[in-house]
Structures are given as C-alpha cells and as structure tokens.
Write a structure and sequence with these properties.
alpha+beta; seven-stranded antiparallel β-sheet; single chain; Alpha-D-Glucose-1,6-Bisphosphate, Chain A, domain 4; 21% helix
C-alpha cells in the first residue's frame, strides 16, 4: 500500500461477519450493473455504468469477517484521457474490531493523486463506501445509487 492510495474508514455497531457479508453482496451497495459471482475466490465480476465506467474485478482474497481483495484486470473509464487507469489496481476492504465497534477500512491501491481520475473516483468511492456500504451494513437493506 502506498501512502497516497485512496483510503476511507468507518465504524458500525454490526459484527465483522455482517460487514463482510455486506461487502461481498456487491449488488446491494455498488450502484450500477454487476455481472458475475462476487463471493468466490478466483471469480471475475464486471461492474458497468453505461457510458461512464466498466471494470472487471478478480476476487483474490476472501477472509470472512476480516478481508476482501479484488484486482482490477480490465477497465474503461470514459472521463480520463487514459481510459484504463484502473487496470492493475487493487480494491481492498479490511475489517476489524476497534473500541467495541467494527471498523471497515477501504483502500483503492493505485488510486493516487497522480492519477487523472483521482478526484472523481475518490469522491464516488467516498459516497459508495461511506454512505451506501455503511448503510447497507447497518440496515441489511440494498441501497439505491447515492447520486
């Protein structure tokens, strides 16, 4: 992990296992079209917002109640000059207990200020993770797009 990778953290009263289950239920919080398995190591899933974003994530690590890691194997973002900026980056969720609560730390490794999409992508992740995923964990209910 680089010191400039985009990271955001939040805490909830739910268990680490509940947080983990919500994370791998990608369709319930990452608004857009999700195709493929999102809960099996080695599986690929595609995330698409037509005309804006398409990416393929390979699930590299799943440790119930602790960690989820996806590697972006293909991507096309329509707004930056380099449409494939996300290719090779990693999306990491780390879950643990802190001060009697469950802490979820999200890091998009490779999404640094040097990357053109940093501002737009980190803003979107802040809403998707900090609002949608957090609310999904707390309520157990699928979340609508935050925009």
């Amino acid at each position: 992990m680089e010191p400039n990778d985009f990271t955001t953290t939040f805490s909830v009263d739910n268990t680490p296992e509940e947080a983990w289950a919500a994370i791998v239920d990608v369709r319930s919080w990452w608004s857009g079209e999700v195709a493929g398995d999102t809960d099996r190591i080695g599986a690929d899933f595609t995330y698409t917002v037509p005309g804006v974003h398409r990416s393929v994530q390979r699930i590299e690590e799943l440790v119930p109640g602790e960690r989820v890691v996806w590697r972006v194997t293909d991507a096309r973002l329509e707004f930056p000059q380099d449409k494939g900026e996300w290719i090779g980056t990693a999306i990491v969720f780390e879950i643990g207990r802190r001060d009697g609560r469950t802490e979820v730390r999200f890091t998009h490794r490779g999404l640094t200020p040097a990357v053109e999409c940093h501002d737009r992508c980190s803003n979107a992740w802040s809403r998707l993770v900090g609002k949608n995923l957090r609310t999904r964990i707390q309520t157990g209910e699928p979340q609508p797009p935050p925009w």
